[in-house]
Write a structure and sequence with these properties.
The chain is α/β, with parallel strands linked by helices and 352 residues long. The protein is 43% helix and 18% strand. The strands form three sheets. It has an eight-stranded mixed β-sheet with strand order 3-7-4-8-2-1-6-5. A two-stranded parallel ribbon has the order 9-10. Helix 1 crosses helix 3 and helix 6 packs across helix 8.
């Protein structure tokens, strides 16, 4: 019979044989099908293709031809195939050739967006066609089994927290800048959670790295600072000046107050305040290039207590809960800016 031949490894899961093969990228679009979008959900074996996700995957591959990483696809064979082991001993029986009839249908169970992204990326980078992707092949056992496989393959996948994604992303210049800032400032290095974006109530950390990253990026953008990690001095100087005017943060660093208490009782232990401080601080830098460090003393005059509902409700609080909407950030920044401006003119007057 006319057939495809793939070097393969045979394995067993739940008493069923499956195979792992390597497929050239240029063959991915031709070999692997996915259910037609027009079919109703009960007749499909996976989610509908979200075409909006495909360009980002394609661009990722095209932009990083020497660094891209793609996880394995999973597919089912509906048609004739056989496995030819390379030998008879226990090891050789698991290594061999998977022979697939050319009339067989190989249906994607998981990875249809990667498949579509590969096809699109090869239009820009055809030389990548000789590179390969791993494909885990399962014998087809009908629509119900394929649908269950889709559920089983996806139900336990958890997208990593934004903090961890940023912390590990060596290509993102802004993330590298934030890491450089945190590394240079002991309080941030010790009190920032680099793996979680939503801190649990009892966390011993004060800030999430994702919130610090947003604040650093906001400062750089609003103040027109150099965003390269190698020239982080101005950003480090700013956050050192902020910390010097935040007695509560310093108390946490000295272990006089727990981070959990500060998050429970104050506004400034949350991302909305970090970003708002960055906005207000950038305005001070723009308006008073030489005197902005002194203006940051106005941070001491803000009543940061969450108990002051009259001050914070409708700003950083909505219904008594911290709110991270853009409106909340802007309104909080306006309040801080007023305090900094007063410090820069006729001395500190408490804002509250």
């Amino acid at each position: 019979m006319n057939s495809y031949r793939f070097a393969a490894i045979r394995g067993v899961q739940a008493g069923r044989a499956y195979y792992v093969i390597m497929v050239p990228l240029r063959s991915v679009g031709r070999l692997f099908c996915f259910d037609e979008e027009e079919l109703p959900p009960e007749l499909r074996a996976q989610r509908e293709l979200n075409k909006g996700r495909v360009p980002a995957i394609a661009q990722y591959i095209a932009d990083h031809p020497r660094e891209y990483v793609l996880s394995a696809l999973a597919a089912s064979i509906d048609g004739a195939f056989r496995f030819e082991p390379s030998g008879t001993d226990s090891t050789s029986r698991s290594i061999g050739i998977l022979v697939v009839d050319m009339t067989a249908t190989i249906l994607i169970n998981d990875g249809q967006h990667r498949r579509a992204g590969i096809v699109e990326a090869l239009r820009e980078r055809p030389h990548l066609g000789d590179e390969t992707i791993a494909v885990t092949i399962f014998p087809d056992e009908g629509l119900e089994r394929s649908q269950q496989m889709f559920v089983d393959l996806n139900q336990h996948s958890v997208k990593p927290a934004r903090s961890l994604r940023l912390f590990y992303d060596s290509r993102d210049q802004g993330a590298r800048l934030t890491r450089a800032v945190a590394d240079a400032i002991p309080l941030l290095r010790d009190l920032t959670d680099f793996t979680r974006s939503n801190l649990p109530a009892g966390s011993r950390k004060l800030f999430a790295f994702s919130n610090l990253h947003t604040a650093v990026a906001t400062l750089v953008s609003e103040a027109g600072l150099d965003a390269t990690p190698e020239r982080a001095d101005a950003v480090i100087e700013f956050w050192n000046a902020v910390i010097a005017n935040m007695p509560d943060w310093l108390a946490v660093a000295r272990r006089e107050v727990s981070p959990a208490e500060l998050r429970r009782d104050t506004i400034h232990a949350h991302g909305v305040a970090l970003e708002a401080i960055a906005i207000a601080g950038a305005r001070a830098m723009n308006n008073n290039p030489n005197g902005w460090p002194e203006m940051l003393a106005g941070l001491r005059d803000v009543d940061w207590s969450r108990a002051n509902r009259g001050l914070w409700e409708g700003r950083a609080l909505v219904g008594g809960k911290i709110n991270r909407s853009r409106t909340s950030v802007v309104l909080t920044a306006e309040l801080i800016s007023r305090s900094l401006a007063q410090e820069g003119t006729d001395g500190a007057r408490q804002i509250g």
